[in-house]
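Hello,

Our lab assistant flagged a job as stuck in the queue for most of the afternoon. It eventually completed. Since we weren't sure the result was trustworthy after the delay, we are filing this so someone can double-check. Below is the sequence as submitted and the structure that was eventually returned. Let us know if re-running is recommended.
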Amino acid sequence: MKVVNVALLGIGNVGTGVYRILTENAADIKHREGLDIRIKKILVRNMNKKRDLEIDKNLYTEDFEDIINDDEIDIVAEFMGGVDPARDYIVKSLQKGKTVVTANKEVLAKHWPDFEQAAKGTGAGLYFEASVAGGIPIIRALTESLQANNIDSIMGIINGTTNYILTEMSEKDASYDDVLKEAQRQGLAEPDPANDVEGYDAAYKLSILASLAFHSRVHVENIFVEGITKINAQDITWAKELGYTIKLLAIGKKNGTVIEARVHPALIKQTHPLASVRGAYNAIFLHGHALGNFMLYGKGAGEMPTASAIVSDIIYASHITEHKFSTFENTYKKPSAITFNTDWASEYFIHLKVKDKPGVLSKISGLFGNNGVSIASMMQKQTEDDVTGIVPLVFITHETSELSMKKAIEQIKEIGDVVEVASLLRVID
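-- returned structure --
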């Protein structure tokens, strides 16, 4: 039976899950996979810290050198999060010929070329199923199961924190601030939630997914990013009236040599499969030329779902004698044959707060028309602001270009009777 020695970088929530699976399921893994996977070292910041899980303290080390200098360690599993010191640890492990399994989407999205270069130099493997959508096997699907397809679009809910917030706002008519506080209380949102609510976490994940799906490196800086912090309960209510729900979507499309990649909140038809994804769950909706539409759904974060993906990678890597790498040129340079589209076509939901005066609507409609924006429907809603002489106008447009819409909005802001552009959201049918 093959013996595989593993080092864990960290023993927090995810590390605890990995430890439990590898120890509690050891007999099953031996029986099913013919592998005796042993945890040889665990890197911790403080060896004397009291932990809930009873672990042999001889496994602990505070010195990373104890891991990379141990020739018996075959696989290093990293789930520390962030860029530093994770980047340095991953590079050094690969340079020592140790295969790396990581759940760290940020460091992978930003430094993937460094890792792949180091891995190729020694023949080590680099695996990252847990970096996107927790326990959902989307990475393996793209690299191992969908090779017969040309994937031309990928759209997903890949951040559980924002999906939880938007679900609670929709179902309980709660405010963004109140739901965020509750998410933080439950541990679903960080004390500083910017990485999630501003869309950066989803952008890191989309960078990885789009690169694999489109066989071309999609850097984070090539992704348009907009978060959910400006979404309000009123917009969610009006969206529901129109037959939509609001989700933070990661969207990637490829048409020939043109790629568009964007993360932003959007109105999506309530009949779309992604509209029913609630709470902290994730889902990825793809289209392949042979398969057609395809969706994977499941828990996108958490101790055990993420640990499940990490252990799957450890088992998979343990069976591989020659590791595979990217199907594209994985460098820091923008792919020379690819153009990134920043002027995509979309329908739009626009919420304006305006003074209740004659001629305001005519001015707004004129500026939309001057910029090639065609209005599909318009509503003037009654709210408590009416007593102040300020009323909300809600527009849904026909499909138009992103840049035309932005130009129209900038001009509309200059109208003296327009108090605020409260919302500008894209619409997905």
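-- support follow-up --
The delay was a queue issue, not a problem with the job. The result is valid. DSSP finds 14 helices and 18 strands in the chain. The longest strand covers residues 244-255.
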